[in-house]
Design a protein that fits this description.
The protein contains 12 helices and 16 strands. β6 (about 165) and β7 form a beta hairpin. The protein has helices at about 5, 45-55, 65-75, 80, 115-120, 180-195, 220-230, 240-260, 300-305, 330-340, 355-360, 425-440; strands at about 20-25, 55-60, 100, 125-130, 150-155, 165, 170-175, 200-205, 265-275, 305-310, 320-330, 370-375, 385-390, 395-400, 405-410, 445-450. The radius of gyration is 21 Å and the shape is globular. It has one domain: 3-Layer(aba) Sandwich (Alkaline Phosphatase, subunit A), CATH 3.40.720.10. Mean pLDDT is about 95; it is low at about 1-15. With about 450 residues, it is an alpha/beta fold. It has a 10-stranded mixed β-sheet with strand order 7-6-5-4-8-1-9-10-2-11, sandwiched between helices.
Length: about 450
């Protein structure tokens, strides 16, 4: 069990015994897009086997958009504390709305202490591959935030061909239409792992762009999914399915090289999505569906924030376990620091270590309230809103109208039964918690236009 490792002091634990850590982040992967989460159409044999050999989380949360989740993962802080509450560079407004949305921060400040910097201080080699989306200059790109090895998508990142890759802020590769981006990122991840020496642990942050729009498949995979159309009750996007499968294959390559190098038994692999999938027509036919979850990316309802998550560590994490306790993406900084025995953590962390629930998934994990803050308009129909979950109860507030909804997620995962009128005391309590939290963290709120009131 993991607890045997956690009891070791970092002063007594030789560097080579600290586990290697690989964090794989998918982009816009929906809650039920993997076979192990019940998808009958998309083929994900590697991730399904990881679930069978490790732990699958049924209530893992991220934030409604990519940059907020990435900032939370890197810092252990809520994105609202950082002012990164939607994708960097976006400032959508709605002329018909009664509110003006706040401006998102331009980057993750270089003075923030990242997960990579903390692990580097603890003797880790650090590598980042893929989509960064937290800054664009030397101080705010991965090489300025604690990553020694970096291969970052730098140009044409929405396409899967004709893209650019940079390292240390300089362009090192420009695709001519022949190297599929997902495969190229897998190549770099394998390269980083193969360069590692046994005596020094490593941290690899692999942030795939898949299956984010554009929906660009590998041609050789398309026909298989075309033949599968109509064989399931629900309608699926075959091009999207190929993108998820290509990512799954890349993860298989990573696990294979770990095994070949004798590293599999000393490597923790975490897989997660950065937000919900896109459940509406956007540029292309609807990529995926979150049903029975409500809504999708860009919303604070479950479809926008509840995501697939797996943890695998051969012979350390019990196999075939479903963990039904809830957690959120900012929990990984304190979790991984506890894993390696580091007690000196940055101030103002909002995350909470989840190691106790990894060790004892059948026991209730008192995570406490988790908050979601999206004061923006999204390209997927999302509007300014916030939410708080405390235990099985969840309150959602519409920032345009001030209206609230109350749900019991244990009984109503689809958030279809609003209980605010039958549970007024619970509604008031959670609403007050949300207001107090917004004030305490300095969350930027939409400004009401002149003449508009609730």
């Amino acid at each position: 069990m993991l607890v045997l490792i956690f009891l070791c002091s970092p002063l007594l634990l030789p560097a080579q015994q600290k586990p290697n850590i690989i964090f794989i982040l998918a982009d816009d992967l929906g809650y039920k897009d993997l076979g192990c989460y019940g998808n009958p159409f998309i083929e994900t044999p590697v991730l399904d086997q990881m679930a069978a050999d490790g732990m699958l989380f049924t209530q893992a949360y991220a934030h409604p958009a990519c940059s907020p989740s990435r900032a939370a993962l890197m810092t252990g802080k809520h994105p609202a504390r950082l002012g990164i509450t939607t994708a960097l560079g976006l400032n959508r407004q709605d002329e018909s709305s009664p509110v003006i949305t706040p401006k998102v921060a331009d980057f993750l400040p270089s003075e923030e202490i990242t997960l990579a910097e903390q692990l580097k201080e603890n003797g880790y080699a650090t590598g980042m591959v893929g989509k960064w989306h937290l800054g664009h200059d030397d101080a705010t790109l991965p090489h300025g935030q604690g990553f020694e090895y970096d291969r970052v998508i730098s140009k044409n990142g929405l396409d899967y061909y004709n893209y650019g890759i940079s390292s240390q802020g300089k362009e090192i590769f420009m695709d001519d239409g022949s190297d599929y981006l997902t495969d190229k990122l897998s190549d770099y991840a394998v390269q980083f792992i193969e360069s590692q020496k046994d005596k020094k642990p490593f941290f690899l942050y692999l942030a795939y762009s898949a299956p984010h729009l554009l929906i660009v498949p590998k041609a050789e995979k398309v026909s298989k999914y075309m033949w599968k159309l109509g064989q399931t009750d629900e309608e699926y996007n075959p091009y999207y399915a190929t993108m998820v499968e290509s990512m799954d294959e890349g993860i298989g390559r990573i696990l294979s090289v770990l095994e070949a190098k004798g590293m599999l038994e000393n490597t923790l692999v975490i897989f997660k999505s950065d937000n919900g999938g896109v459940g509406m027509d956007q540029i292309a036919y609807r990529p995926t569906s979150m049903e029975p979850l409500r809504k999708w990316k860009g919303h604070v309802y479950e479809g926008g924030i509840r995501v697939p998550m797996l943890m695998y560590w051969k012979n350390e994490i019990d196999a075939g376990v479903k963990n039904n306790n809830y957690l959120v993406i900012e929990d990984f900084v304190p979790t991984l620091m506890e894993l390696i025995g580091e007690k000196d953590l940055p101030q103002n962390l909002d995350g909470k270590s989840i190691l106790s629930t990894v060790n004892n998934p059948s026991q209730a994990f008192e995570r406490g309230p988790i908050y979601f803050h999206f004061p923006h308009f999204s390209g997927q129909g999302g509007y300014p809103a916030g939410a708080v979950r405390d235990g099985e109860w969840k309150l959602v507030e519409d920032y345009e109208t001030g209206k609230t909804e109350l749900f019991n997620l244990a009984e109503d995962i689809a958030e279809s039964n609003d209980l605010k009128f039958s549970e007024p005391e619970k509604t008031e309590k959670l609403w007050q918690m949300l207001k107090n939290w917004q004030k305490s963290i300095g969350a930027k709120m939409p400004a009401r236009k002149a003449g508009h009131k609730y």
